Amino acid sequence: MADLVKYWNPENGDVLVFYGDANKAGWNDGTSIANFENLKADYETDGIFGSDNGAATQYIAGKLSGATTSGATLAEAIRYTNEYAKEHGLSNAHRYIILWDHGSGPDGLGPSDEKEISNAEIGQALSLSDKKYDMIIYDACLMANLEAAYPVRYCGTYLLGSEESMPGTGLNYEGIAKALSSGEYAALDGAKFIGDSYLSDYQEEKTFSVIDLSKIDSIVSAIDKLGDETGRYLDDENSIAALSRIYQNTEKYGSQDNPLSIDLYQFADNVYQNSGGSVHDAAGNLKSAIESAILYSKFTSGHDVANGITIAPGMAYSKPEYVDSTVVLSNGGWANFLRSFITAAQSGYEPKYSYSASTEDSDANDSGYEDTKSSTKSGTSNSPGTLTISGDNGLSEVMIDYLYLDGDKYYIVGQEYAEEIMGEAPEGSVWTSVPTGEYTTGDDWDGDWFALVNGEEITLVTMLWDGDFTEGGKEYSIYTIAGDLTRTIDGKDVTYKSLLTAFVDHEDMKVTSLTLTSDTDASSAKLNLWGSEKLAAGDRFTPVVDYLTDDDDEIHSETGKTHTFSASPVNDLQLVEFDDETIYWDYEIDTIVEGSTPVYLSEADFAANNGTITAKPTASAAATNAAASPLLPAAVLAALGAGVFLFRRH
């Protein structure tokens, strides 16, 4: 708002701001309305919008009684704008709308505040405008999304937004003011300038798109056709596995574990590259429709792709009826395909796990399986071998957890993503390759991993994998670290639950970026109460560290040691060498279906169960069968005959 006041040219137009729903004077009593002159006078009084010296400001044009985050209030705001434009001779002026809130893509605006406006409500409200919007701009997370664009496709010319979560600072309003009021830019050029100005304030994992709303119907028609064609092959035993792998290899947004959306173009391209016949043709047509609609799409580090528009991750839903409540496109071929896929994927779901040890593991014991300890000094390794999963309909995602034993606690210090091997499809299949169910690992874990280091002090952290990307020919992984961060502001200590995000360069085994948000829910980046993602010297971080024990089937957490950041915080997260007598690994096996329970297995589990373990959790509900921990010393495990170790990650 301050940047609008500073950079808006009032000779070329006016501004109406509707604000409220905050616990402070001037914002906590309905929805206030301010035009440009109101905003300027309010700001010049004390530099604070909405209040003057602690009391609600007098500089407003009017009030709406409802909460700002509601469909009814948005509709009332549109009607107010229509009348305001008539009264001030602006009926024929270009018109733009910016929607600023928490965004959740397919779920609309504001759900993290327990108040929300659905995408359908937004469409209904914007349809009340007596003039089509030149731009519908979302200053909100995840709103460059098909479910968000579809209800407003007739309400505007362009939709501007981000596929990814946005930083708390939001869009660049200096750029917005110049693009919309300087008179220097045609509509599309102005839209691109807004994107460039947003991305110019460099932060990792930013994306921005300009979407031609007149092409949305073509995208919907094309994806419905893809749903129809793909749905014809769901009785092929390879189709569920092939489609599951295609979904898992598609860029996700919001968070890796519980994405709110996926990149639609990459999904279509993955289908196109791995299919033939009518499915291949339908995927190609969808790609063409998207290419026609996306007029601008750029992104910064942290993604391999960001092609401009996302869609709800319907293949990950645990119940077919979720499609009706979340997917706006609920009456066409795409929604029908999703319902059928969900039903078919969970039919006969009874995964079996088998394991063959790495040939590099030379420290086999008398029980016929390898010791899971790493002992590089004696020539053995700590590399998991090959895991084979059958009976899971291809729904599994596999991680390898790095475990550090201290006393009786096995701390999870890091993770590695296990890739599934693809094989040639059987003759006559619509798919060109299909998942084999075999998973192998990358490099051996030699006991070197990351911890926060301050001189001689080492602070253990749990680094959870959140995706990979390639940049400049190098491969990087994204990790998140949860905890509490304390910062001294104006002489007072302020503490928020926070999330550190680290980029790890695998070639050099070095952290290249370390950023901060105040909320551990990655889909709600607008909640970054720190204002900036930059860590500061003197910040104190107390991590939450996850660990396992031999006593139960639960994952536990404890408060770690507090680390004080140096003048170069990214250099504090350093590679350290764990004692090779205290490092272990396990497989963490989850499914793409929401509500599933991870399975945790070690090499010793397979030895104690003659090489094969059968798990019987359902794909749509938490498994309840408890079993012994796989983390006991190998000889003890063999004696106890341990089974599957199941528990829920909190």
Quick structural gist:
The chain has 650 residues and is an alpha+beta fold. Helix content is 24%, strand content 29%. The strands form seven sheets. Strands 16, 17, 22, 23, 24, 25, 26, 27, 28, 30, 31 and 33 form a twelve-stranded antiparallel beta sheet that branches.
Can you put this structure into words, describing what you see?
By secondary structure, this protein is of the alpha+beta class. The protein has 15 helices and 33 strands. Strands 16, 17, 22, 23, 24, 25, 26, 27, 28, 30, 31 and 33 form a twelve-stranded antiparallel sheet that branches. It has a five-stranded mixed sheet with strand order 6-7-8-9-12. Strand 23 and strand 24 form a beta hairpin. Helix 8 (216-231) packs parallel to helix 13 and helix 10 packs antiparallel against helix 11 (277-293). The longest helix is centred in the first third of the chain and has 17 residues, at 71-87. It is globular and about 80 Å long. The two termini are 39 Å apart.
Secondary structure layout:
Blueprint: H1 2-7, E1 16-20, E2 31-35, H2 36-46, E3 51-52, E4 55-56, E5 62-64, H3 71-87, E6 96-100, H4 119-126, E7 133-139, H5 146-149, E8 156-161, H6 173-181, H7 187-200, E9 207-212, H8 216-231, H9 239-248, E10 252-253, E11 261-263, H10 264-273, H11 277-293, E12 294-299, E13 310-311, H12 321-326, H13 333-346, E14 352-356, E15 386-390, E16 396-406, E17 409-417, E18 419-424, E19 433-440, E20 448-454, E21 457-459, E22 464-471, E23 474-489, E24 492-505, E25 510-517, E26 540-548, E27 556-559, E28 563-564, E29 573-577, E30 583-591, E31 599-601, H14 603-608, E32 612-614, H15 634-640, E33 645-646
Parallel strand pairs: 6-7, 7-8
Antiparallel strand pairs: 1-2, 2-5, 3-4, 8-9, 9-12, 10-11, 11-13, 14-15, 14-32, 15-19, 16-17, 16-30, 17-26, 18-19, 20-21, 20-29, 22-23, 23-24, 23-26, 24-25, 26-27, 26-28, 30-31, 31-33
